[in-house]
Amino acid sequence: MKTKFIPRDISWLSFNERVFQEATDKTVPLIERMKFLGIFSSNLDEFFRVRVATLTRLAEVKKGVSEFTGEDPAKLLKQIHKKVLFQQQEVENVYNAIVKELATHKVYIVDEKQLNKEQSAFVLKYFHENVLPTLAPVMIETAPNFPYLNDKSIYFAVKLYRKGEVKKGMKYALIHIPTDVLPRFVVLPRQGESRYIILLDNVIRFCLNEVFAVLEVDKAEAYTIKLTRDAELDIDQDLSKSIVEKIEKSVKDRKKGEPVRLVYDRDMPKDLLQFMMKKIKMKRALTLIPGGRYHNFRDFINFPNVGNKELLYHYPTPLPHPELSKAKSLFSVIKKKDILLCYPYQSFNHVIDLLREASIDPKVTSIKMTLYRLAKKSSIAYILANALKNGKSVTVVVELQARFDEEANIFWANQLKEEGAEVIYGISGLKVHSKLLLISREEGNTTVTYGHIGTGNFNEDTAKLYSDCTVLTADKRITGEMAKVFNFYSNNFKIGSYDHLLVSPFFMRKKFIKYINKEIKNAEAGAEAYITLKLNSLVDTEMIKKLYQASEAGVKIKLILRSNCSLIPGIKGMSENIEAISIVDKYLEHSRILLFCNGGEERIYLTSADWMYRNLDLRNEIAIPIYDKKIREKLKKILNINLHDNTKARILDEKQDNKYKTGAPGAKKVRAQDAIYNYFKGRLLAHKVQ
Q1: Average pLDDT for the chain
Q2: Cα three-residue angle 137-142-143, rounded to 5 degrees
Q3: Tens-place pLDDT, residues 476-515
Q4: Which residues pair with 366 in a beta bridge?
Q5: Which of 37, 80, 221, 230 is the most buried (most CB within 10 A)?
Q6: Residues 6 or more apart from 629 whose CB is under 8 A from it?
Q7: 368-395 residue pLDDT tens
Q8: Residue 192 backbone class (left: φ over 0; alpha: ψ -120 to 50; beta: rest)
């Protein structure tokens, strides 16, 4: 039988469809459904900026295709285009349905034609005081150069008429809708129990004639357009430039990337559309997406929280860790035993507290961290700066190629460097994606090192919304090898040898293949053999082939995958022993947990790596073995809860129809994210009773 794979990009579209399902799910609060439309749109934007842009390049150059896609890129582009066109219409239908449902809760989204006298006066005043000063229309027929269109912005393509001069007096203009400086949603004055919202687009439409008053315009029509550009970084190999200069140049070049998609209001007159296409210099008909009146739905992630609480999710307060919350010194707790933290169920503040303690503790001599994506107002960065002021040695490995966070990372790197930190700008040709913190502390006549290895970033913002796991440890087996990793960052020739940590791109792939082979051997010998993997993505063909081989040998494999899955479960003679689900819910599933039966002596790992070619071969990733029995049981419990989800879990199969997993008739409903929170809450209460 020929080995089967689902193309990575097609599987990604299937994942984003699961996100879209949350917007259609009537059990999801209405405003949250609106926000899921925003997430869906934001995901799709990035998909076009990166993946479609890459496929477009490959279709043109026709080399290196198999490395990226495994299929004909032109064929994939056609499949993507067909799927996206269908989704575009569905988004508009769902948006209109949500608007109608919000109205039943007395929350009204109105356009420029639905304003009453009081609202009209408010909008007119808001326009003159806030909006008009930000508008700078371009008369694109007479402008010497067509303006550069930012791919994160939306624009009005405007058609202007003068009375009695329909053809002769017709003019075209372009207006940037200033969502970068003004909110997309304007909340109008409350009327009794009713709340009213108007989009910034419609505020401008309401006053459009005033924008062009000097031209004595009789009629003005505005149609929204949105351009998406190629966002892949092209890092050249000029070794005479520093890596920082290369990244800064590439970020600037990204803003001039080739157009890969034009979304436009399908009601736009043909003459205006053709004029815009000519000016934008669109090359491919495939990139044209007819849409509705509103684009950039990603702004709906920030839809205003108006109306009743029932329109929003209840996000429970992150729980304190029972042993860290009351400790005078976190070092004293971690020295005695390994600690597991799982966000957002437990508080990320414990990591910030650990850093703060390290920054002022006179016994602490050094702090070393990898920084991939920091929060905009990062407490982590401020604490590291204070640690430097307190005389600590601080080393930070800043990954400058963290996609779409390059500029922020350069900013923080420069800030810390000015304070005196040793800043290592990643590794040339190897993205640093590990989540490491290593603190050295003088205790008596010895130096004790304390480590943090996790699945998520040191980011207090995403820790509230991403499910991640972290281990805090003083285990010399682990911290000693963490020191080797940091030595590698400082000196790329010192790869080191590792008996405990799995480190990519050097040893991780080989180790995982070795573990799968052992499961195959045990299954063939009639012994118990199983593998459970919780990952974000599974697209690496070599690893998928090994899982197929394991399935054929009788190994029972369970997969919990958030997004991309190129493996096809349930195919007789190939993958009949593989089951796969995907959970999309109010938190973004981000933790990676791997479990191997290992002849009854289970191996469990936490890792920053997905099973993708880039993670295993082109990035520095770390997987930590879990030796503590209690932490092993907690992680197994988390896996088990996920596997029993029959509320938000979707079944992954060859059809990719994302059917919800349902329990047997009368079975107890399990919603994994709520159940995991309750699990940790129960453990916290049990600890207090003790």
Answers
A1: 89
A2: 60
A3: 999 999 999 999 999 987 888 999 999 999 999 999 999 9
A4: 393, 440
A5: 37
A6: none
A7: 999 988 888 889 999 999 999 999 999 9
A8: left
- Alpha-carbon distance of 540 to 538, in angstroms, equals 6
Measured CA to CA, the distance from residue 634 to residue 613 in angstroms comes to 29
Handedness of CA 540, 543, 545, 550 (dihedral sign): negative
Coil/strand/helix, residue 153? coil
Other Cβ atoms within 10 Å of 321 Cβ, number: 24
* CATH annotation of 503-689: 3.30.870.10
Structure tokens at 352: 């910030």
Of 623, 563, 627, 628, nearest to 593 (Cα)?
623
Which sequence spans correspond to the domains of the chain?
Answer: 8-311, 330-500, 503-689
Q: Hey, what's the torsion of the CAs at 544, 546, 552, 558, to 10 degrees?
A: -60
Give me the mean pLDDT over the 449-462 stretch.
96
Catalytic residue among 176, 350, 433, 452: 433
CB contact at 8 A, 287 and 257: no
Cross-strand bridge partners of residue 47: none
pLDDT tens column, 178-225: 999 999 999 999 999 999 999 999 999 999 989 988 888 888 999 999
Average pLDDT over residues 60-79: 68
Per-residue pLDDT at 161: 85
Q: Are 509 and 616 in contact (CB under 8 A)?
A: yes
Architecture of the 330-500 domain: 2-Layer Sandwich (3.30)
| Helical spans, DSSP H, in 491-611 | 508-524, 541-553
Q: What would the two tokens of residue 506 be?
A: 């050097």
Give me the residue label for tokens 């599987």.
Answer: 11
Q: 8-311, superfamily in CATH? A: Polyphosphate kinase middle domain (3.30.1840.10)
**CA end-to-end span of the chain, whole Å?**
58
* 18-26 contacts, C-beta under 8 A, 24 or more apart: 18/582, 18/584, 18/650, 18/658, 19/43, 19/584, 20/87, 20/90, 20/91, 20/94, 21/584, 21/650, 21/658, 22/584, 22/585, 23/94, 23/98, 24/94
Report the C-alpha gap between 65 and 90 in whole angstroms.
Answer: 31
d(CA 487, CA 437): 13
Fold agreement (330-500, 503-689): yes
| Mean pLDDT calculated for residue range 404-420 | 80
Q: 590 catalytic, yes or no?
A: no
Full-prediction pTM beyond 0.85? Answer: yes
Cα–Cα distance between 279 and 207 in angstroms, integer?
26
Tell me the two tokens of residue 288.
């044209």
Count the residues in the chain. 690
